Amino acid sequence: MKTPTWAEVEEFLEADRWEEIRDTGHRFYRKTLADGRVLETHRSFSSANTMSPGRSALILRTQLECSADAFWEAIRSKRPVPRPSALPAAPTQHPLWAVRLLRDQLHMSEAEIAAMSTDEVIRRAQEHWTSGP
Q1: 30: domain range?
Q2: What is the pLDDT of residues 35-59, one digit of tens each?
Q3: CA Rg value for the chain
Q4: Residue-averaged pLDDT of the chain
Q5: How many domains does the chain have?
Q6: Helices 68-77 and 6-15, packing angle to 10 deg
Q7: Considering the domain boundaries, does residue 88 fall inside one?
Q8: Residues 6+ apart with CB under 8 A from 76
């Protein structure tokens, strides 16, 4: 999945008709939905940087309340996202100790770890601990 840059997040917010509420180097936005709920988000000032897939999915699900497809369609069409929108599923939460071991000692990438089941992450970490030098 392609993850957006912060500039693309800002493009989305403009297309989806969010209101900028303050600018402190980070820009803060608010959107009131038809059902009265209020969404809030902000955009980092490092506009060319992309975010990790996990962070992107979290922002889509909890702050923007839209799917990745709806996000990119809003940018393409310059039209707001119809809500409710299909939200991305919550990512699997692997134990932090196991993720750190796989990343720092086995040099696995975040994407490789994210693609594994929690049972597989734990099994690989335990295998590493029990294997000899």
Answers
A1: 6-77
A2: 888 999 988 777 667 788 888 888 8
A3: 18
A4: 87
A5: 2
A6: 70
A7: no
A8: none
Give yes or no: residues 27 and 66 share one domain: yes
User: Are 60 and 117 part of one and the same domain?
Assistant: no
> Within 13 Å and on the Cβ side, how many CA atoms surround 28?
5
The single residue listed with the structure tokens 């991305």 is 88
Whether 24 maps to a domain, the answer reads yes
The reported pTM is 0.63
**Is 14 in the same domain as 59?**
yes
For residue 41, CA distances in Å to 58, 59, 62, 89, 125 come to 12, 8, 9, 19, 36
Whether 112 and 54 share a structural domain: no
54 occurs within a structural domain: yes
Measure the CA–CA gap between 92 and 75, rounded to whole angstroms.
Answer: 28
Copy the structure tokens of residue 123.
């099994």
DSSP state of 50: B
CB neighbour list of residue 8: distance below 8 Å, 6 or more residues apart: 75
User: What is the rounded average pLDDT of the residues 48-73?
Assistant: 87
> Does 69 share its domain with 117?
no
